[in-house]
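USER:
Before I trust my own judgement here, I would like a peer's view. Write it directly below this note and I will take it from there.

ASSISTANT:
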Amino acid sequence: MVCICFRAKTAAVPENILKKQARDAKLLALRKAQRDQAKKDRAAARTAAAKNAQTYAEEYAKADKDLVDAKRKAKADGNYYVEAQAKIAFVIRTRGINKLSPKCKKIMQLLRLRQINNGVFVRLNRATINMIRTVEPYITYGYPSRDNVRRLIYKRGYGKVNRSRIPLTDNSIIAGALGSKGINDIESLIHEIWTVGPAFKEANNFLWPVKLNTPRHGWEKKRHPFCNGGVWGNREELINEVIARMN
């Protein structure tokens, strides 16, 4: 008796299909590695941001404590403690373009105050103080508190990315624009603005001018200086009350 066996022929897979399968597997492995690395980078960025926030909070607490101690020591010695001059001002535009001279118009453009109720942070030095005094009848300004700087950036902060106004909804937006300056999260941005750090110019230019509401109960007399019950001029620390009414 003869046994006959039949072997099934396997269909040959074309070479181009094999190459495509190998290429797809390689791309899939690459994408998976990129996703894993991006996940690790995001976790590391969140950890670094939390650490920065804690460091800045401790620095602010120490500065507040040192200020209180210095005032108490001066009082105990029968003296007065004079605080250091403010390094930053918040400038708000209060009037439009009517009867605006070309020089004042140019200064408004340099300060980036192109609309009424827009506000910007300005580093105080001899040049900027002279510019502010030139356009003083069209603006009001003062020295914001640390809490108001944080509140303005968190609530109304927008960044300039590719000449577009982008809300600061993620730290990656800040890191993409200011990462080369060591500013990778919003707390670092606030710290750089408040302390007027070495990268203040880049950080301030990255921030879009703050668009504020008309203040509750309206403005006072716009054509009169603040010292005479009007609007324009230096309010010093009283600018914080205006920010609260406009924010």
The first helix runs from residue 15 to 76. Strands lie at 88-93, 118-123, 139-142, 158-161, 164-167, 210-211, 221-225, 230-236. The mean pLDDT is 89. The helical segments are 15-76, 102-110, 126-134, 146-156, 171-178, 186-195, 200-206, 239-246.
